[in-house]
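Sample pair:
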Amino acid sequence: MRNHRIMRFLLGRTDALGDVVISLPVRERILSRMPEAEVHWLVRPYAAPLLRGLGTVHLREDGQDLAALLRAIAPDAVLNLGHRDQAIITAARAAGVPVRVARSRGRQIWEATHVLWNGRNGTGRPEAMNVLDFLKPWGWEGGWPAPPRLVLDAAERERGRADLAHLPRPRLGVATRSSGSSAYPSAAWWDRALAVVREAGWTPVILSPPEDAPLPPADLRGLLARIAACDVFLGPSTGPTQIAGALDVPTLALMGLTSNRGPSRWAPLGRRVQVLQYPPPEADLSGGMDRLDPRDLLPHLARLAQPEA
């Protein structure tokens, strides 16, 4: 019989990969306050491999009986960390989940037991701190979030090294584009930038998106392994850049300027992260990144490549 003293949390995060990574500090904070707690995840199938070794994972699929799934999981609390998938809170209410935490969006306002009314835009807070707000019912939300950490086993790391073994070091993993609303440089800018870093002695390899990569296709775990095999990772505000930081790979993030798109909210929280912001005006999202001088990458890459003291 289940021990009534052990709380079971279900963290719903059914949006992009980067959002899942940013939410990892919620699990860490729960376990730092209640080590015996069970932390489960509800994510889309494409994100599930990201969470291997980080709790029990359940899949959010279209057309499923979500209330039945939640009855089977039997969580004590559901935290809907995203705001778009409001059906999670509806299903949690139908399933009789005692504690339901959500943002003040739509029907969540009356279906949740605890509603977060504070906004996220313009606060200057990192997004990982914003998701810690979901722990307010327990008084665990305060303080700086622990950097997200992803898990790779020895075999996966060896697989990544083998995939990149033909590339001389230092290797620079690259993500050229974002799948979301964030700005990213044009293909022409990347052509110039990669030529500059090659001339400086780096071996750049595009790892994301897959259609731009020169390597054979890899699954998500394979992408993590390849990122981990790089000496430095470079990319705009996108999932693979967040992944690199969470794998403790030295990371250079290309970011915007405003509080909603810039590093104060979206920069990876990894231990070795540098940020390069493109020049103003911020409103020019379509071409703003192309105003960056590729040579400005080099001092950042040189610093990231230095051995740690």
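The first strand starts at residue 8 and ends at 12.
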